[in-house]
Amino acid sequence: MPRRHAEHHLIGRIGWLRAAVLGANDGIISTASLMMGVAAATTSSGQIVTAGLAGLVAGAMSMAAGEYVSVSSQSDTENADLARERQELKTDRDGETAELKRIYIDRGLEPGLAQQVAEQLMAKDAIGAHARDELGISEISTARPIQAALTSAATFAAGAILPLLAAVFAPQRFVMWAIFGTALIVLAVLGAVGATTGGAGIVKPTLRVAFWGALAMAITAGAGALFGHAV
Description:
By secondary structure, the protein is mostly helical. The chain is about 80% helix and about 0% strand.
């Protein structure tokens, strides 16, 4: 018996990977930037840490709520489309078979073969065939609101805690540099890990994440220094 050919495709990771990378990246940048802005306006380590802690909690909750609402909207749309397809399968099964046939012909199958494929798939799993081939809904792309919300909140907090810890343990006169350096290093590592996990090259994603993170922190620190001294 021939050995089964095993393939491991990275596209299956895209749902949780997107939420994880977005959450961690936002946690690091927003929290570090917030603390940088406060550090530029005051020399109080307590105020800097308090601002970072508040940013961590508020940001994690905001990410969870936003991701849940966004992905829930996608899920509602998917469920509405599937309900419509189920109704059409009950009332016009022949028309739905012809619809699949046209899809397969457009993809390159001969009409006769397309008819056979459509009939066999309709016999085995009609709604699954229409979800996948007509609507583009698959197991990989199916919206999972709770998973996305929890992943975003957890990864935001995990990213935010690192510059916060740097502010807690760094000497007061080096707090800004500790926050900046920690955030920049972690962002670079995050970019590299995300690129590797997704099967992409490392250099460009790493530089891209580090550049935009450094720019955000620099601008926020400048705003904190400007308005802090003005007030």
